[in-house]
Design a protein that fits this description.
heterodimer; A: alpha/beta; Amidase signature (AS) enzymes; three-stranded mixed β-sheet; B: Arc Repressor Mutant, subunit A; 18 strands
Amino acid sequence: MSGPHTWGVAECAQQLEAGAVSAVELAKHLLARAQADTHGAFLALNPEATLAQAAAADARRAAGERGALLGVPVAHKDVLVTRDWPSTAGSRMLANYQSPFDATVVRQLADAGMVNLGKLNCDEFAMGSGNEHSAFGPARNPWRPSHVPGGSSGGSAAAVAARLTPAATGTDTGGSIRQPASFCGITGIKPTYGRASRYGLIAYASSLDQAGVMARSAHDCALLLQAMCGPDPLHDATSLDVAVPNFAAELTQPLKGLRIGVPQEFFGDGLASDVRTALDQALAQLLALGAVRVDISLPRTELAIPVYYIIAPAEASSNLSRFDGVRYGHRASNVTDLADLYGRSRSEGLGAEVQRRILTGTYVLSHGYYDAYYLKAQQIRRLIAQDFQAAFEHCDVLFGAVAPSVAWALGEQDNDPVASYLADIYTLPASLAGLPAMSVPVGMGASGLPVGMQLMGNYLQESRLLALAHAYQQCTDWHTQSPGSQA
Amino acid sequence: MSAPLVQGFEVVIGFETHVQLATQSKIFSRASTAFGAEPNTQACAVDLALPGALPVMNQGAVACAIRFGLAVQAHIAPRSVFARKNYFYPDLPKGYQISQYEIPVVQGGAVAFDWNQAAHEVKLVRAHLEEDAGKSLHEDFAGMSGIDLNRAGTPLLEIVTEPDMRSSAEAVAYARELHRLVRWIGICDGNMQEGSFRCDANVSVRRPGQALGTRREIKNLNSFRFMQQAIDYEVRWQIEQIEDGHAIEQATVLFDPDTGETRAMRTKEDAADYRYFPDPDLPPLLVAPEWVERERAAMPELPRQRASRLQQQYDLPAHDAGLLTASAATADYFESAAQASGQAKLVSNWMMGELTRRLNAQELDITQSPVSAGQLAALVGRVADATISNNAAKQVFDVLWQQGGEVDQVIEANGLRQLNDSGALEAMVDEVLAANPDNVAQIRAGKDKAFNALVGQVMKRSQGKANPQQVADCLRAKLQ
């Protein structure tokens, strides 16, 4: 396997700079692959718009402009709105919905010269962990198409793993970047909550939603993250007013003596043995790089599941109220009255998992239940965040699994939504605390499907995570493997 | 104070007033708040609740809330929280209204005003920031409802009183004072027709000494007259119900100005569960002490302070000072004219009389008056120095109102200068006395009417230019 689709972000930039390829040629090559894709990764292509962006990037380069992302292709998860592509959030409710504006992260990547290839499949409104809840069909795991790519950013993970794009955006509410990155053997990072603007990110759970990057290496992640992050005071009141460090320049910071905390709760009975084996080897590798192991405890790890599955649905039940069939989106026909318009538009437009979470969220916010559920969950959420702060007094980075197992077969969890909620246990704590976290491929499970390690850092310490992952990737090759190279 | 009873019942009233804040843009978006634009032309992605759009706080609306808090001596919360009030309605684009719920920005305070010739106050519970909804237009489309989202996201300050008021008259006096206050401090245009100032009245009745009765809430009262009518009707209705042995059921009611009656819109049973929770899109609203001090420094002299100053500084009756502080612009007009002319009481009389009458007749605001404070000052100056009579002054005022111009020029051009030559006046008086011996005889017999007739004769002979006071003095002297 060779050709421009095998290039990562940095390599694309080098080839463009060397004049070996133009942005238009690169885009055409990848568009052709996207059109032939069988993994259900893409939901929408608009070759005309893609090629216009590519031509613009070539013109900028011809005018003397340089940039690490200029002319490099990318693709966006469909919960990020785009002016020139439909934005469906994987929902029938928004089939063909056209946004009049670009999400801030989309615009910032475009400003940096990135060329958008199209929109990527995901679980409906980012609710799910297998990409099986997309109204437009599942995305498939390129390592084994009978298996899920993970979710909710399953299309993003599949597209990067299948070499349809060098990088993609994803969003992470409870693990939606890290878990599919792990399932598909790629590198993904969710920055600190508020690092990247949520403007244009179709809201699932506002206090948790965070856009991030999915790519082949920590280095590539650093390049995109650089352009995506930054304050957005005019559009997002929760975006952080802090300067963005030079992530790529900080990749090579020394790791000698870096304290890696290993939370015992991440290595309990629920962890599959093949995943544990891969993680043990990865940890040994990190220690060999000069890091020091510190055993710590995050005592409320298990509570993250009920807390998340109260807070996220509560926010979702309110966030998704705007999809009422009145102004845009799916509207039932032949309605008898207003209640019928609402009831049928929403029943027809929203899928089962979304409805399940809306009902759960409505329930926990209801009069008489609010204190026992929502308020209590918020209290425990603060305790979970405090546990992390206590842990970071003893270590610099936390290390653990991303998911208890490798990817499961499509349909395997259809009848048991709770089972898939439980599988989120390792990604939820960092989400609830708003901490940066990433997934880095560290091996293969017994069935030959990828395993990722999770690195979690303290607030705004993305650089440290990226540097550790980068050092690991300098002496391992898991991140360079692709489904094609193995077959 | 002792409350007036109605048929043996004590009336208990509390108010919730929605004050539309006079910001240029909406509370959470940058769309314009101007009234009267084509439907849906002043609604941006945030107001339309498009996917991915997020609210961002308009600092100007917060400044308005701070100013109000200062004006009513309330506690300005250093940290307050926006919540979501969830319900479905077509003119509520997000499916929830963003409003302060558990922790409002303005807490406590009181609105002070004169009531029954005494200082009085109505205590406030709170004032909180929230966004307005859009409008549903049910009449314009056959079989369908139109939605206009121009108003969606307009900033409101909801001002909530304690159940402190004991009569409809007191409630209206409170509402008038609040109306004056919010306009005075520049946070609301006060336009009640356009819905900038909307009152909801919570009304209940009880036998004196008993616990509070069940209240019914009269929604959206947008004129002071309707307010009084609606409350009076509601009080009578509730008393009738109780006397007939019926319990009052908590309800929201609407007042119909055509029938003068209130009728229930919804009862407690169909009250929605709004599922309030803190809005995760908006961090807590933090108001630093420095911000409060900045607003305090920029606050105008408040209406009651100004009234009392005007009373003392210009030696005016309390009644005048009250009327002259109906609005800050009225008080400015007065002070400007009073200082320029040195005739405060005359200016006050003219403003409360001729000026107010004319402004009301043409539905003009004092700021739109065709006669400026400077012109009025010049006019009263000419009355004070006896250049023109009061009657002539009214003619001059009319010319100024209709055509504008300079006071002295108008007096000359219309020949309105008063006859102040005592020799000429005396001659005219002598002529009139000689020509009316009968009247003179009657006056001597003690008939005052005849005296006035002679004054009239002299005025007529002078073509209105004589000073009536001088004429009277001269006549009296001659008749003695």
